[in-house]
Amino acid sequence: MKDKLYLMIPGPTPVPPTVMNAMSKPIIGHRSAEFADLIGRVTDKLKKVYQTENEVFVLASSGTGGMEAATANVVNPGDKVLTLNTGKFGERFGEIAAKYGAEVDEVKFQWGYDIDLTVVEEKLKANPDIKAVFATHNETSTGVENDIKGLGELVDQHQAVLIVDAVSSMGGMDVRTDEWKVDIMVSGSQKALMLPPGLAFVSVSPKAWKVIEQNNSPKFYFDLLKAKKSLGKNNTPYTSAVSLYNGLEASLDMILEEGLDNVIKRHKLLAKATRAAVMGLGLELLPAQEYASDTVTAIQCPMAVDVNNLRKTLLEKYNVMVAGGQAELKGKIFRIAHMGYATKTDVLLTIGALEMALNKCGYKADLGAGVREAQLVFLGERD
Ligand code: PMP
Predict the structure, then answer these.
(1) What's the CA-to-centroid distance between 136 and ligand 1, angstroms?
(2) Which of 78, 97, 166, 177 could be joined to 137 by an S-S link, Cβ 3.0–4.6 Å?
(3) Domains and CATH numbers, the chain
(4) For 278-319, what is each residue's pLDDT tens digit?
(5) For ligand 1, atom 6, which residue shows the shortest CA distance?
């Protein structure tokens, strides 16, 4: 049976039936009072998940559009910016900033490791004219969570604004926008927020507004000052993605009903079980456990196994889709996502299928050893 798919990739992720149903509501006018009410409610709920008092904008684009909006509104040609590259998405921020004419100082950390704050501290001290620091909270390409709290404390002592990509953590991990002093926090719909692709979210702090007001980079669709003016009237500058807003309200309601703390705990537990399971099979994680992501686990593929063959076997024989590595990690790692609409059973099923697929691909995995480790985590028998 081909159409039953266990989607365990880091986005797009499975969308709950409640959210799908909400999106099938009749279309309403985007300038109607009813839609303005919806924008008002959604913004309030989004702020709770963002843990912020700042405005949060909903943009009709994928996550990269949110990254571009943040950049286009802050960077003037010739501005000095610091980009922290711990993987493909940190690298992307550098690419976008360069397109907007920034003088980009990129610090590349070895992929699989987290940001070294001492390096950032030195850079900021040596270059007080840095206008913006770009970082990734949860680096999806390597399964690494960066210490944004620590970074926020550092950047806060400087004039620079802190722009963070939380595309693959928002709605699944603890993302404390205000407490961590993040000036612009970007996220996207198709990951832990349990929606189809198509929306990006961007929060903006008072410190960032001061910079945005001085910005003269060419931009039209992603002009955040225009978006701010509209949001003041519970509106958007251009046609809103009406159906996705309905879905967004449903997904935010699900998160808030479960309780943000419980959602965060669930993701921690699923990640812990996944890590225990793969290690129980003798596999190695890419990142160290202390900064491993709670939404996606990156696993080094054993030498004897061809990653593409492993992924193909998982998909074709067991209907489980996992992700491979990107860029320099292509062929070296595979990634199991456990974000959004994900449960303990999803993890058990994926690990069970992985055990069989590994055996079919030339790695003698001890059948049941991974599933057992995950079960022990779920039963509370592993600290
Ligand atoms: N940042 C991170 C951390 C991501 O995981 C992704 C998507 N994989 C993006 C940015 C880009 O988002 P999109 O593909 O929606 O443009």
Answers:
(1) 10
(2) 166
(3) 6-12+259-378 (3.90.1150.10), 17-257 (3.40.640.10)
(4) 999 999 999 999 999 999 999 999 999 999 999 999 999 999
(5) 167
